[in-house]
Amino acid sequence: MTLGDIIRNYRENNNITLGEFANACSLSKGYISMLENNINPRNNKPISPTLPSMAKVASGMGIDLDTLLKMLDKKQPVQLISDKLESSSPLVVDYQKPDQERYYQRISEYTARFLDLYNQLSSTNKGKVVSYTKGLLHTQQMEDALLPNAANDRNATEEEKKHVDNIMKNDKEWM
Fold this sequence. Notes:
Pfam families: HTH_3. InterPro entries: Cro/C1-type_HTH, Lambda_DNA-bd_dom_sf. GO terms for molecular function: DNA binding. The chain is mostly helical. The chain has a single domain (about 5-140), classed as 434 Repressor (Amino-terminal Domain). About 60% of the residues lie in helices and about 0% in strands. The longest helix is centred in the C-terminal third of the chain and has 24 residues, at about 125-145.
C-alpha cells in the first residue's frame, strides 16, 4: 500500500476527518490530502514524503515509524533528505535496488528526528553541524586507531604489571 492508502484506511477505520488527522500529525490539511491522493499537484508526479513527515504521520496514527515503513508498498518513494537542503538534491529510495532496501530498513525514528531538527537550522548552522560531525568522526577514528596499540594486561599479575611500568618509566629504555 502507498502512504496515501494507509492514511485513508486509517481515517476511515477510525472515522476521523482529514482535518482531525492533520491536527493529530501536526501537518497541514493540504499536505495530508496530497499524501492521500499520492500526487504532488506542482508536477503531477507521485508524492515522495520525507522521513520526518512520515514520522509525524506515524505519530498521528499512534504507531512508530518503523511499523509504518513496514506497511508501505516497496514502490513508495521516500525522501531521505528534505528539499530544504540547499546544497544537495533529495535522495530517493528506489526499492528495485536491494542494497537500498537494506539501508532503508535501518533508518530509525531517531534518524528521522535528527533530520527534522537539522532541516529547521539556518544554512550557517547546518554548516556548523556538518563541520562538528566531521570533527567528531575524526576524533572517533583516531581513538579507534589507538586502541589496538594499548598495552594488553589480560591475566597479568600485579608483579608483571609493576615490571612493565618500571620499563616504561626508565629513560634508558627510550634512548
